């Protein structure tokens, strides 16, 4: 009998979760939820004391390595109760920066933090790489289990990456890789997948030198009250802004311009209560990609991406504007994108949900509202359950609401869906959408409970989506 207890518990839990599911019937419902969520997400406050990094020996000549000066300033600021660690005008070269609780790393106008191209300047820390836990190079700015931390100011964070530094590790010739160069991430990526499938303890999955897994740019991990404002972020080795397992994340007026491989703009991963607004993305991969872990790691940790607001942002180049996935095995719920603008011939999709049956997870309650799109390549709205390899964990996509969408210079499809017959995209609503310049109105397979109201494609009413 004991062997059936876990199965019985899983069945009861599944029934209970299904009973809780209620699709929206009006935009008033998610708009009310957004209003309530905004009241929960608060900017951290800091003691009004400044710690100038030049007082700790930093030299802004772009050549002197200032890793120790940053460390000393941040540690003193933290030890004395917090405040601002201020970077003045100049170019300050450094290795990894570790942010401690109650510290606001503030970049003055005209300042640049230029990150070292030497991998030895990035210690091995507990991190996630493409949604998988491991020990690898520290992100350029890192924090672990800290509270009330920030990166602010009108200065620049320069990851200092190019086809000769970091980027070629991806193994693509377009980013500088060739067989005469040491360094390619493919064997390490395969090994990390193997460790994860074996459920090898994460702290025993040790990478670093000789493995070529690029670090992300900004990664607060298991931290609370993370704030970022006004800075320019460019030339990242890999993902740009990647809070992991964090709660209460507020990003505003940030500009990310980074066209390297896997250079996603903003990847909140398994985070709760996230608000990004008034920001700009021009990236080599997804502009914003919401994540919750890959395969076994995502499912075992079981933390969904929950309660995210993406508001008044501008997206240019990128694989997708607002994306959920693909590392989404922990699920995602209550994702609200409102008032965003997208326009680029190099932008593949406006809204994309991508996953696979090796991931699983439930993706529900996605609200895409008041969106203006100029050009895109593939689809305005894209559902994909067959991204990467298949497995035994069929994903769920349900309650997706798109309202007040305009497209001026559309791409191939208005709506494109690739789902499972056993798990169709369910409760998809599109209201007040006007799309022109689209080659093919739609291509869909398995969808259930589709509502279309006042939707036109190239001036013609779109009243149904059928295979």
Automatic annotation (TrEMBL):
Pfam families xref list: Glyco_hydro_28, Pect-lyase_RHGA_epim
KW Hydrolase (keyword) present: yes
UniProt keyword ATP-binding, yes or no: no
Keywords attached to this entry: Glycosidase, Hydrolase, Lyase, Signal
Signal sequence region: 1-21
InterPro entries attached to this UniProt entry: GH28_Enzymes, Glyco_hydro_28, PbH1, Pectin_lyas_fold, Pectin_lyase_fold/virulence, RHGA/B-epi-like_pectate_lyase
Example GO biological process: carbohydrate metabolic process
Molecular function per GO: lyase activity; polygalacturonase activity
Domain Rhamnogalacturonase A/B/Epimerase-like pectate lyase: 53-105
Domain of life: Bacteria
Family: Belongs to the glycosyl hydrolase 28 family.
Protein name (Swiss-Prot/TrEMBL): Pectate lyase superfamily protein
Organism encoding this protein: Chryseobacterium arachidis
């Amino acid at each position: 009998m004991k062997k059936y207890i876990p199965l019985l518990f899983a069945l009861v839990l599944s029934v209970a979760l299904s009973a809780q599911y209620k699709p929206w019937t009006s935009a008033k419902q998610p708009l009310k939820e957004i209003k309530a969520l905004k009241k929960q997400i608060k900017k951290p406050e800091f003691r009004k004391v400044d710690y100038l990094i030049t007082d700790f020996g930093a030299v802004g000549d772009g050549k002197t390595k200032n890793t120790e000066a940053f460390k000393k300033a941040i540690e003193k600021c933290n030890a004395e109760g917090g405040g601002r660690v201020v970077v003045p005008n100049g170019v300050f070269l450094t290795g990894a920066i570790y942010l401690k609780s109650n510290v606001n790393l503030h970049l003055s106008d005209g300042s640049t933090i230029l990150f070292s191209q030497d991998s030895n300047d990035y210690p091995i820390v507990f991190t996630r790489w493409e949604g998988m836990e491991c020990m690898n190079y520290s992100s350029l700015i890192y924090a672990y289990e800290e509270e009330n931390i920030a990166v602010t100011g009108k200065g620049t964070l320069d990851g200092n990456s190019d086809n000769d530094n970091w980027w070629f590790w991806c193994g693509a010739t377009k980013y500088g890789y060739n067989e005469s160069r040491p360094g390619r991430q493919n064997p390490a990526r395969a090994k990390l997948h193997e460790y994860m499938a074996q459920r090898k303890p994460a702290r025993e999955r040790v990478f670093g030198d000789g493995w070529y897994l690029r670090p992300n740019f900004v990664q607060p991990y298991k931290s609370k009250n993370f704030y970022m404002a006004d800075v320019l972020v460019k030339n990242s080795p890999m993902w740009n802004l990647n809070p992991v397992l964090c709660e209460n994340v507020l990003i505003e007026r940030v500009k990310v311009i980074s066209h390297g491989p896997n250079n996603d703009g903003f990847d909140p991963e398994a985070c709760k209560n996230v608000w990004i607004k008034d920001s700009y993305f021009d990236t080599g991969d997804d502009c914003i990609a919401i994540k919750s872990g890959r395969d076994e790691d995502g499912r075992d940790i079981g933390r969904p991406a929950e309660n995210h607001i993406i508001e008044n942002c501008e997206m240019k180049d990128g694989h997708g504007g607002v994306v959920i996935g693909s590392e989404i095995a922990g699920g995602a719920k209550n994702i609200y994108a409102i008032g965003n603008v997208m326009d680029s011939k190099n932008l593949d999709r406006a809204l994309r949900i991508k996953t696979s049956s090796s991931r699983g997870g439930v993706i529900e309650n996605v609200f895409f509202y008041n969106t203006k799109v100029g050009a895109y390549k593939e689809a305005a709205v894209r559902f994909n359950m067959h991204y990467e390899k298949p497995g035994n964990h069929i994903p769920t996509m349900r309650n997706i609401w798109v309202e007040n969408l305009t497209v001026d210079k559309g791409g191939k499809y208005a709506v494109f869906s690739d789902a499972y017959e056993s798990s169709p995209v369910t409760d998809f609503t599109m209201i007040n959408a006007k799309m022109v310049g689209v080659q093919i109105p739609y291509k869909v397979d398995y969808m259930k409970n589709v509502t279309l109201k006042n939707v036109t494609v190239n001036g013609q009413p779109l009243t149904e989506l059928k295979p």
